[in-house]
Amino acid sequence: MTIDDRWFAMQAITIMDVPSSVVYFYPRLIPLHDIDVDSNEIPSPIRCSSEKLRDDGVYLLENGIYLFLWIGLNVGMEWVQNVFGVHSAAQIDIDRTELLEIDNPLSMRIRDLIEDIRIQRHRSMRLTLVRQRDKLELVFKHFLVEDRGLDGSVSYVDFLCHMHKEIRGLLS
Protein backbone atom coordinates (compact mmCIF):
# COMPACT_ATOMS: atom_id res chain seq x y z
CA MET A 1 0.00 0.00 0.00
CA THR A 2 1.31 3.40 -0.90
CA ILE A 3 1.19 6.44 1.36
CA ASP A 4 -1.57 7.84 -0.86
CA ASP A 5 -3.62 4.65 -0.38
CA ARG A 6 -3.23 4.88 3.39
CA TRP A 7 -4.19 8.56 3.42
CA PHE A 8 -7.25 7.84 1.29
CA ALA A 9 -8.30 4.98 3.60
CA MET A 10 -7.88 7.18 6.69
CA GLN A 11 -10.01 9.91 5.14
CA ALA A 12 -12.66 7.44 3.98
CA ILE A 13 -12.94 5.88 7.44
CA THR A 14 -13.71 9.24 9.04
CA ILE A 15 -16.88 9.67 6.99
CA MET A 16 -18.11 6.04 6.93
CA ASP A 17 -21.46 5.09 8.39
CA VAL A 18 -21.64 1.99 10.60
CA PRO A 19 -22.54 -0.56 7.87
CA SER A 20 -19.69 0.73 5.69
CA SER A 21 -17.18 0.57 8.54
CA VAL A 22 -18.25 -3.00 9.39
CA VAL A 23 -17.53 -4.19 5.86
CA TYR A 24 -14.29 -2.18 5.80
CA PHE A 25 -12.93 -3.94 8.88
CA TYR A 26 -14.41 -7.33 7.96
CA PRO A 27 -14.61 -7.52 4.14
CA ARG A 28 -17.15 -9.61 2.26
CA LEU A 29 -15.69 -12.65 0.50
CA ILE A 30 -18.23 -13.90 -2.03
CA PRO A 31 -17.76 -17.18 -3.93
CA LEU A 32 -18.64 -16.77 -7.60
CA HIS A 33 -17.75 -20.16 -9.11
CA ASP A 34 -21.17 -21.65 -8.18
CA ILE A 35 -23.25 -18.49 -8.65
CA ASP A 36 -26.89 -18.90 -9.65
CA VAL A 37 -27.28 -16.99 -12.91
CA ASP A 38 -31.06 -16.84 -12.48
CA SER A 39 -30.91 -15.07 -9.11
CA ASN A 40 -30.58 -11.33 -8.55
CA GLU A 41 -29.42 -11.75 -4.94
CA ILE A 42 -25.84 -11.24 -3.83
CA PRO A 43 -24.56 -14.70 -2.83
CA SER A 44 -23.89 -15.31 0.86
CA PRO A 45 -20.36 -14.34 1.86
CA ILE A 46 -18.00 -16.86 3.41
CA ARG A 47 -15.47 -16.42 6.22
CA CYS A 48 -12.60 -14.14 5.27
CA SER A 49 -9.84 -16.75 5.42
CA SER A 50 -7.42 -18.29 2.91
CA GLU A 51 -8.57 -21.70 4.18
CA LYS A 52 -11.87 -21.06 2.38
CA LEU A 53 -10.24 -20.38 -1.01
CA ARG A 54 -10.33 -23.31 -3.44
CA ASP A 55 -7.93 -23.71 -6.36
CA ASP A 56 -10.94 -24.23 -8.64
CA GLY A 57 -12.83 -21.25 -7.25
CA VAL A 58 -13.39 -17.58 -8.03
CA TYR A 59 -14.07 -15.10 -5.22
CA LEU A 60 -15.03 -11.45 -5.02
CA LEU A 61 -13.64 -9.57 -2.02
CA GLU A 62 -14.91 -6.09 -1.24
CA ASN A 63 -14.47 -3.79 1.71
CA GLY A 64 -16.17 -0.64 0.45
CA ILE A 65 -12.94 0.83 -0.89
CA TYR A 66 -11.23 -2.05 -2.70
CA LEU A 67 -12.76 -4.70 -4.96
CA PHE A 68 -10.75 -7.82 -5.82
CA LEU A 69 -11.62 -10.75 -8.05
CA TRP A 70 -9.44 -13.73 -7.03
CA ILE A 71 -9.15 -16.47 -9.64
CA GLY A 72 -7.88 -19.93 -8.71
CA LEU A 73 -5.52 -21.58 -11.17
CA ASN A 74 -7.77 -24.63 -11.59
CA VAL A 75 -11.01 -22.82 -12.43
CA GLY A 76 -12.99 -24.69 -15.07
CA MET A 77 -12.25 -23.79 -18.67
CA GLU A 78 -15.94 -23.14 -19.40
CA TRP A 79 -16.25 -20.65 -16.50
CA VAL A 80 -13.10 -18.79 -17.58
CA GLN A 81 -14.25 -18.77 -21.21
CA ASN A 82 -17.70 -17.42 -20.30
CA VAL A 83 -16.43 -14.60 -18.07
CA PHE A 84 -12.98 -13.69 -19.43
CA GLY A 85 -13.10 -14.93 -23.03
CA VAL A 86 -9.90 -17.01 -22.72
CA HIS A 87 -9.28 -20.74 -22.27
CA SER A 88 -7.44 -20.85 -18.94
CA ALA A 89 -6.83 -18.79 -15.81
CA ALA A 90 -3.20 -18.36 -16.88
CA GLN A 91 -4.34 -16.43 -19.99
CA ILE A 92 -6.46 -13.88 -18.11
CA ASP A 93 -5.24 -10.30 -18.54
CA ILE A 94 -4.96 -9.23 -14.90
CA ASP A 95 -4.21 -5.64 -15.89
CA ARG A 96 -7.87 -5.15 -16.85
CA THR A 97 -9.98 -3.10 -14.45
CA GLU A 98 -13.34 -4.14 -15.91
CA LEU A 99 -14.68 -7.45 -17.16
CA LEU A 100 -15.28 -7.99 -20.85
CA GLU A 101 -18.88 -7.61 -21.97
CA ILE A 102 -19.47 -11.15 -23.18
CA ASP A 103 -23.04 -12.01 -24.14
CA ASN A 104 -23.86 -15.00 -21.93
CA PRO A 105 -25.82 -15.37 -18.67
CA LEU A 106 -22.78 -16.00 -16.44
CA SER A 107 -20.83 -13.00 -17.69
CA MET A 108 -23.85 -10.72 -17.38
CA ARG A 109 -24.61 -12.01 -13.87
CA ILE A 110 -21.04 -11.42 -12.63
CA ARG A 111 -20.95 -7.90 -14.12
CA ASP A 112 -24.39 -7.11 -12.64
CA LEU A 113 -23.24 -8.35 -9.22
CA ILE A 114 -20.16 -6.11 -9.31
CA GLU A 115 -22.32 -3.16 -10.31
CA ASP A 116 -24.82 -3.92 -7.50
CA ILE A 117 -21.98 -3.88 -4.95
CA ARG A 118 -20.67 -0.59 -6.32
CA ILE A 119 -24.15 0.92 -6.02
CA GLN A 120 -24.44 -0.29 -2.40
CA ARG A 121 -21.17 1.43 -1.55
CA HIS A 122 -21.96 4.69 -3.38
CA ARG A 123 -18.62 4.61 -5.18
CA SER A 124 -17.12 3.01 -8.23
CA MET A 125 -14.52 0.74 -6.69
CA ARG A 126 -11.78 -0.22 -9.13
CA LEU A 127 -11.81 -3.93 -9.91
CA THR A 128 -8.46 -5.63 -9.39
CA LEU A 129 -8.01 -9.09 -10.89
CA VAL A 130 -5.81 -11.37 -8.80
CA ARG A 131 -4.67 -14.72 -10.12
CA GLN A 132 -3.67 -17.38 -7.61
CA ARG A 133 0.09 -17.34 -6.89
CA ASP A 134 0.67 -13.98 -8.63
CA LYS A 135 2.40 -11.03 -6.93
CA LEU A 136 -0.91 -9.27 -6.25
CA GLU A 137 -2.08 -12.21 -4.18
CA LEU A 138 -0.11 -10.83 -1.21
CA VAL A 139 -2.13 -7.61 -1.38
CA PHE A 140 -5.36 -9.62 -1.62
CA LYS A 141 -4.41 -11.82 1.34
CA HIS A 142 -3.85 -8.70 3.46
CA PHE A 143 -7.65 -8.34 3.47
CA LEU A 144 -8.29 -11.91 4.65
CA VAL A 145 -8.70 -10.76 8.22
CA GLU A 146 -9.18 -14.20 9.76
CA ASP A 147 -5.63 -15.15 8.77
CA ARG A 148 -2.53 -14.09 10.65
CA GLY A 149 -0.95 -10.99 9.14
CA LEU A 150 2.02 -11.39 6.82
CA ASP A 151 4.03 -9.57 9.47
CA GLY A 152 3.04 -12.14 12.12
CA SER A 153 0.28 -9.98 13.61
CA VAL A 154 -2.72 -11.70 15.14
CA SER A 155 -5.82 -12.55 13.16
CA TYR A 156 -9.16 -10.84 13.68
CA VAL A 157 -10.50 -13.89 15.55
CA ASP A 158 -7.42 -14.01 17.81
CA PHE A 159 -7.81 -10.29 18.49
CA LEU A 160 -11.46 -10.73 19.46
CA CYS A 161 -10.58 -13.63 21.77
CA HIS A 162 -7.86 -11.53 23.39
CA MET A 163 -10.27 -8.62 23.89
CA HIS A 164 -12.88 -10.97 25.36
CA LYS A 165 -10.31 -12.31 27.83
CA GLU A 166 -9.23 -8.79 28.80
CA ILE A 167 -12.82 -7.68 29.39
CA ARG A 168 -13.59 -10.78 31.46
CA GLY A 169 -10.46 -10.06 33.50
CA LEU A 170 -11.61 -6.49 34.15
CA LEU A 171 -15.08 -7.64 35.20
CA SER A 172 -13.78 -10.31 37.60
TrEMBL record:
One GO cellular component assignment for this chain's record is: COPII vesicle coat
Question: One Pfam family from the UniProt entry?
Answer: Gelsolin
Query: What residues does the Gelsolin-like domain cover?
Result: 41-111
Source domain of life is Eukaryota
BP GO terms, sorted: COPII-coated vesicle cargo loading
GO: which molecular function terms?
SNARE binding; zinc ion binding
Signal peptide segment: none
By its UniProt entry, which InterPro entries does this protein fall under? ADF-H/Gelsolin-like_dom_sf (IPR029006), Gelsolin-like_dom (IPR007123), Gelsolin-like_dom_sf (IPR036180), SEC23_SEC24_subfamily (IPR050550)
Q: What is this protein called?
A: Gelsolin-like domain-containing protein
- Species: Timema shepardi (Walking stick)
Q: What is the lineage of its organism?
A: Eukaryota, Metazoa, Ecdysozoa, Arthropoda, Hexapoda
